[in-house]
């Protein structure tokens, strides 16, 4: 049995994957943004071990999530599932757009601050292929709301998640760190007209979370639905850019690069 922590698991794919992992006999800790969402998470997955609460758009609350999770003990796998898909700038208390905070900064912070697991899964998207490889102003501090582009921000954040997976695979050779594109599926985020199959996406989540299949024993890779490995944007393999991305996030959040 594995212990697995899943961010953004009060609904959508996060909740579906949690239910499947519980059914497979694993101990799953859920995450929800607030108390109401925590109730929703428990209702959707009553067999979960616990629910951690906190808003990933806030640096202080994200640090609190890491602290809550660490108090529960070591996890075999952490799935960075939470994410925002486009939307307005929505400036956070830390002065950056919520999308950049949740999609880019939060996965780094949790990985840096939580007790190191055996496996890491960073949620990406096929749209990362359109993401800018430039690391200038990834948190939109210089450009601000006037120059905000929800599509540009989203695509870049999904590229950052592939880069995180590859960077931590290098830094921590004892950890299997991979990126996953769950595909475009019919959830609240994906919309009812999404063409992808949920089951194929869940298969990939579960394979990487359980870590038993030969494919799941790889590290620094990029997977798609149906437990298939795929090739990410070439820029994701640039180790210099990976290190710069870690540095930007660490400096902004005032923590050390793990």
UniProtKB/TrEMBL annotation:
Keyword Ribonucleoprotein carried by entry: no
Domain of life (superkingdom): Eukaryota
Family as reported in the entry's similarity comment: Belongs to the short-chain dehydrogenases/reductases (SDR) family.
Sorted UniProt keywords: Oxidoreductase
Region Disordered, annotated ranges: 220-239
Pfam families tied to this protein: adh_short
The protein, known as: Short chain dehydrogenase
Compositional bias segments (type: Basic and acidic residues): 226-239
Gene Ontology terms, MF aspect: oxidoreductase activity
């Amino acid at each position: 049995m594995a212990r697995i922590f899943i961010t953004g698991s009060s609904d959508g794919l996060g909740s579906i994957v949690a239910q499947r992992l519980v059914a497979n006999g694993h101990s799953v800790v859920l995450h929800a943004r607030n108390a109401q969402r925590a109730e929703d998470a428990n209702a959707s997955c009553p067999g979960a071990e616990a629910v951690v609460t906190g808003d990933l758009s806030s640096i202080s609350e994200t640090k609190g999530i890491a602290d809550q999770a660490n108090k529960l003990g070591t996890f075999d796998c952490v799935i960075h599932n939470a994410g925002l898909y486009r939307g307005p700038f929505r400036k956070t208390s830390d002065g950056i757009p919520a999308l950049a905070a949740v999609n880019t900064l939060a996965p780094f912070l949790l990985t840096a601050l939580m007790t190191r697991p055996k496996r890491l899964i960073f949620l990406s998207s096929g749209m990362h292929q359109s993401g800018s490889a430039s690391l200038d102003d990834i948190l939109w501090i210089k450009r601000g709301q006037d120059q905000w582009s929800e599509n540009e921000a989203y695509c870049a954040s999904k590229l950052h998640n592939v880069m995180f997976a590859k960077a931590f695979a290098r830094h921590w050779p004892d950890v299997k760190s991979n990126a996953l594109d769950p595909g475009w599926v019919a959830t609240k985020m994906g919309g009812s007209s999404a063409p992808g199959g949920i089951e194929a996406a869940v298969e990939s989540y579960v394979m990487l979370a359980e870590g038993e299949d030969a494919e799941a024993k790889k590290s620094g890779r990029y997977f798609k639905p149906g437990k298939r490995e795929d090739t990410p944007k070439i820029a994701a393999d640039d180790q210099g850019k990976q290190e710069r991305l870690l540095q930007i996030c660490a400096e902004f959040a005032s923590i050390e690069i793990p």
